[in-house]
Design goal:
Helix content is about 45%, strand content about 15%. With about 130 residues, the chain is α+β, with helices and mostly antiparallel strands. The chain folds into two domains: about 90 residues, DnaA, N-terminal domain (GMP Synthetase, Chain A, domain 3, 2-Layer Sandwich); about 30 residues. It has a three-stranded mixed β-sheet with strand order 1-2-3. Strand 1 and strand 2 form a beta hairpin. Helix 2 crosses helix 5. The relative contact order is 0.13.
């Protein structure tokens, strides 16, 4: 059974509401599948061509070979009839957010020192190191 969204896309009822680029970006994963969509994304619509960025040259080469099939699927799922070709570009590597290394010492380290004098010395030394 066909999804309601595919029927709406083909009937052009969303045409005035949603920009074409946004519709192509939304339909990309459905058209190409989750695995390919993980490594690629629609970034630009230039004339009759959609520009897709990919993670690396290997993905670019693989998707170039599948270009006509992917275009056919994208046309079917998005309902955008003006597309004639897909361009694949290698995007700069995506950086993952750096994890916060946290404090040098955890707050409870000093509490494990049984001797109160040594604990106090340890805490004052730690403050000097962290300053």
């Amino acid at each position: 059974m066909e999804s309601a969204l595919n029927i709406l896309n083909r009937s052009r009822s969303l045409e005035g509401v949603e920009p074409t680029l946004q519709r192509l970006q939304r339909c990309w994963k459905t058209a190409v599948g989750a695995r390919i969509a993980e490594h690629s994304r629609v970034i630009l619509l230039r004339g009759n061509a959609v520009v897709v960025t990919v993670d690396d040259a290997v993905w670019q080469c693989q998707l170039q070979q599948m270009r006509s099939l992917l275009l056919e699927r994208l046309l079917a799922t998005s309902g955008v009839e003006s597309l004639e070709k897909i361009e694949f570009r290698v995007s700069p590597a995506r950086r993952k957010p750096k994890a916060d290394p946290g404090p040098l010492f955890s707050q409870d380290e000093a509490d494990r020192i049984a001797d109160p004098t040594l604990r106090k010395l340890y805490k004052s030394s730690r403050r000097k190191v962290q300053a």
